[in-house]
Amino acid sequence: MTEAETHSLTEDAQGIAYGAGMAAFAITILTHLGLITGQTAGLAVLLSYLTGYGFGPVFFAVNLPFYWLGYRRMGLAFTLKTFAAVALMSGLAVLMPAWVRFDSLSTPVGALLFGAISGSALLALFRHGASLGGVGILALLLQDKTGFRAGHTQLIFDAVLFAVALTVLPAVTVMWSALGALVVNLVIAINHRRDRYIAT
After folding, report:
1. Which stretches are transmembrane (predicted)?
2. pLDDT at residue 189, as a whole number
């Protein structure tokens, strides 16, 4: 990104607030339906189901080990922005169920909405030099150290996560969850310019 394309502090703040807010809203849809997703958010959702703890605190805790990796791989600014995004999303995910309630929400439509909203949230964060932390940072670091492609690491992680989910959730739930995760990845793959913005 050239100097002329650098976002201002205000622009970064609104982009991170938008991304974290939309991500929290998407997670509210996901957990209302009892679905899961991929990556670190998916791990946190599954752990919250298994332990009874809310998604917000679990997601915040799961991300803690990754900030040092983020600092080493992406630098201080990225790490601070990512910490802010994760903290804001975690807090909003605690509050959101009291603010947003669903009288009727079909599972297929909810899965699609989750994917689309999550994708737009992640795009906003990526374009302002942040992420929602986690596995993507580790994947990039492994790629730097070993040459093993980051996308493959993320794919393996998601495959294991969904396989574990199949042992504790109904197969149809995992199927609709996979649809939502697919939509997230398609939104990012189609709309994210890796030659211009930081991606994880």
Report:
1. 16-36, 43-68, 80-100, 112-141, 161-188
2. 75
Specify the pTM: 0.84
Which H/E stretch holds residue 101?
A: none
pLDDT of residue 194: 55
Number of domains observed in the structure of the chain = 1
Nearest to 39 by CA among 161, 199, 188, 175: 161
Sign of CA dihedral 56, 155, 175, 160: negative
User: Domain range spanning residue 184?
Assistant: 21-191
Using CA atoms, how far apart are residues 57 and 103, in angstroms rounded to an integer? 26
- CA pair distance 36, 41, nearest whole angstrom: 8
Structure tokens given for 199: 């991606």
Domain assignment of residue 152, yes or no: yes
- CA 69 to chain CA mean position, Å: 17
Can you tell me which residue has the tokens 């957990």? 31
CA distance linking residue 32 with residue 196, whole number of Å: 35
The answer to whether position 1 is within a domain reads no
Inside any domain, residue 200: no
Evaluate whether residue 14 is within a structural domain: no
Q: Count CB atoms within 10 A of the CB of residue 95.
A: 12
Distance CA 58, CA 64 (A): 10
Average pLDDT, consecutive stretches of 10 residues, N- to C-terminus, the chain (200 residues):
61 89 95 92 94 94 87 85 93 93 92 92 85 79 75 82 94 94 83 53
